[in-house]
Design goal:
mainly alpha; globular
Length: 131
């Protein structure tokens, strides 16, 4: 038995909202303007690194990381023409070449020092970027 996959718009509803919330929070709290460009992910990676260096407990930053991951997913979707997919409460971006990317999990990995949203976007965009 397979699980029915949802594609945009229904699968995108939550991550798009989480991304918009992250953009608003960064604009208001950190005075950082995120513009959904691949270049802006440098700033997001740095913000996650700063949070990590403060040694905040994961539970305290989990929603922030989810927002940053959703933001990176929106960047990937816009750069590649990809779509959000969801199943069982998890969300991924499917790029036109059929690959699935998990930017929300990558944000969590960034927090542990093992990931990069910028590099994830670069890898996802490799060969599929729109002109």
């Amino acid at each position: 038995m397979t699980t029915q996959q949802e594609t945009r718009p229904s699968a995108a509803t939550k991550p798009v909202r989480w991304a918009a919330d992250a953009v608003a929070a960064m604009r208001e709290g950190a005075r950082l303007r995120l513009d959904y460009s691949a270049r802006s992910l440098w700033s997001v990676d740095r913000m996650i690194e700063d949070i990590r260096q403060e040694a905040a407990p994961f539970a305290a930053v989990e929603l922030v990381l989810r927002g940053f991951g959703a933001y990176a997913g929106e960047v990937i979707a816009r750069q590649t023409g990809g779509e959000w997919w969801s199943s069982g409460g998890d969300h991924w971006v499917r790029t036109p070449d059929g690959r699935l990317w998990d930017p929300i999990d990558e944000a969590r990995r960034c927090y542990t020092g093992d990931g990069s949203l910028r590099l994830l976007c670069r890898d996802a965009s490799d060969g599929t970027a729109r002109t």
